[in-house]
Fold this protein.
Amino acid sequence: MFIRLDDVAPADLSGIGSKAFNCARLRQAGFPVPDGVAVSSDTTDADVATLLGHPWFSSLSGVRFAVRSSGLGEDSAEHSFAGLHETRLNVERDQLIDAVLSCRRSAGSLEASSYRAARQIAADEARIGVFVQRMVPATASGVAFTLNPVTGADEVVVNAGAGLGEALVSGQIDPDEFRVGKRDRRILSTRIGGNRGDGTPLLSPVQVTTLTDLLLRIEQHYGAPQDVEWCHDGEQFWIVQSRPVTTSRAASAQPSPGDPEWTRANLAEVMPDQLSPQALSIYVDLLDRGERDFFGKLFAPESELGPIIKAFHGRLYFNLSQLRHVTQTVGAAPADTLRSLGHSEEIRPEDEIARRPPLGTFLPALPDLLRLVFNSLRAGPVFQEHRQHLEEILERLAGDPAALSDAAIAETFDWWLTSTPQTLKAVLVMSGVQMHEDVLRKACKAVGFPFDRLVYPQLASGERSVSTQQAVDLVALADVARHEPASKAYLLSAETGFVDFRTALAGTEFLRGLDDFLGRYGHRGRYESDWALPRLHEDPSPALFAICTHLQGPPVDMQAAAARQEADAAEARCAFEARLTAWQRWTLLPRVRSTLRRLKQQYLWREAVRSDLTRVVSRLREWHLELANRFVRRGWIDRRDDYFLIDLNDVKAAALDPSRGPQLRPLAAKAAARLAAERDLRMPLLMRESTLEEQIGRLSDLPTPDSNGDSLTGLCVSPGSVEAEVVVLRDPRDFALMKPGAILVTIATDPSWTTLFTVASGVIVEVGGMLSHASTIAREFGLPALANVKDATRILKTGDRVKLDASAGRVIR
């Protein structure tokens, strides 16, 4: 239950955790480690209350304590939970029990759970031990590496800050840094941080050498490079933690001139695997200009880190190195960016720590940062400005393109290209929810309450987003068909399609309701960002197949579901508020309540903006189709859809100069051949440009994943648990295969999938993060949902029965 560090034996590792065991091992080997007591992970909270009765405490008087978590599997060569589990310093004796219990609870934090899930760490390794040490009154402290964690060079790197090391580890201060050669102990470089105004280093050359000798003895003891936390009490150095270096690969995460990282995790959700060549070239230009206009100097110059967006083999990728640069510049935690994009498996423990940015980077970007904060605070007015601008665009596109010349249509395209970057402002402002989530995350941590338990039910309750309302309205339309025998019989018998639905359903209440539904949502469709693809008003089959799925099961009571969500949200709020002190009710609670309202509203506006922009794309598609049909009639292209294979500049050139029209057919043929050649490429979600071809080859050679595995892991984006069979779908054209009550498994979802959420009991997607469509809609419907479940559509088969435990980040067959 309680074990002195001097008495720890090898058999105790499984109970006390790696951190406590490593400290005990070092102390027993003669290294200067403060004495202490380890609390085993299987100790009950009731037994923890008796901790002060241990004999070790009877010999201590007027001593403060350091209380540190020690998770099973923590600080191994494969895993490091640095910064994820709780540490309490300068703890008085009467506060000791509360500190131990707080450290134990930190194992259930979102960050720690996400880290375990991303690395498929077994559930039994989530147990956590705690150890209590005598607090060293440090005059200086820091971290040191016996291998350079950035460059991988075989040298010692020492970071030093004044006082306790907590501020340094959490990135709140700018440390001194010393690089020391291992062979001759020569100080290779010294960088003075922000510790003192007189410009003198915290450690003297003799102290740096003494610490280096101690560090290299520890490395020799373990036989591997070490990441060490140390402190100095004015007389000697003390070691308070040592673990294997797991950050040597951090160099790969550093922005690399000429070879940045690229990600398509977020784009793969909203864009088809292969965009039409016409849309692809437009989006590369529009998104790059729009993002640079919005973020300004928060992005690095293109000459340093490259463009914001780029196409590789017909797929769009965002520049992750640029996004990391933005995160670093504003002093935010990189983990939040990676989690929202859908790269939780790439999160290192240090990514969870928000660090103070270098002044040389921060000051030039400060005006743009203040502008972004200002825009976020005035999200409401930004949304209204967006709506006004949208009406102006739709008014311009309201005319009949059939009455216009080719040149006039081409001129309209130029006008749209000029005005569109302005519309991206609303998209980016409404997507900027991280500031609000950070406030809530810190509040939950201060109270000791799970972030997801408080926040997710609030996002699920109340007003529905436009995407969720679309699904709710479709359920109501299904109920119309359910009570109209002729409509129900037709829909259930049309197994192969609905080409004659208007004739077959003429005069029915259902058809009138369907037309009303299409009037509100007909602009939406499969991968609706690409204007080469049809809208619902052109082909309502996906909606009709979803209605068929509803008709095969019992009616869905959406009012009862909404009432349950309201009750869950109220229960979560009450549970949170019950944990507050009287002071927190005055200071913390008002801010939490207002931030929850802002966060919910911003998610609603985000979906509305997305729907609005799709309305513009849908209307613009009609102008493109007019020109495409003309080109077919003139014999310039063979088929209408060949038009979308042609670069818009070539389209405009032919519209302005008909003599160039015959050149379009070979251009379309060339683009079609390129699409076909690249169609079956398995593109990575994350890569460096220099290794792309190598990664494509490696992905292509991968065998089909083992379908007999017992479990899969992913990122919880909507909590809960359900046991059911799965239905694996890869395309909206497969909607007819969905079964009521099944768990939907797919690669990613966009709004065209929303209707299936009304019949699904859970959602598993391969791609997506906290901001993804599947995450947002699953939370609104109260469905357990996991994102980033790698190869889910290849491993799971339709009909497999699984337990989806989203809260634990796991799918168990």
Summary: Residues 589-633 form the longest helix (45 residues). Residues 464-574 form one domain.
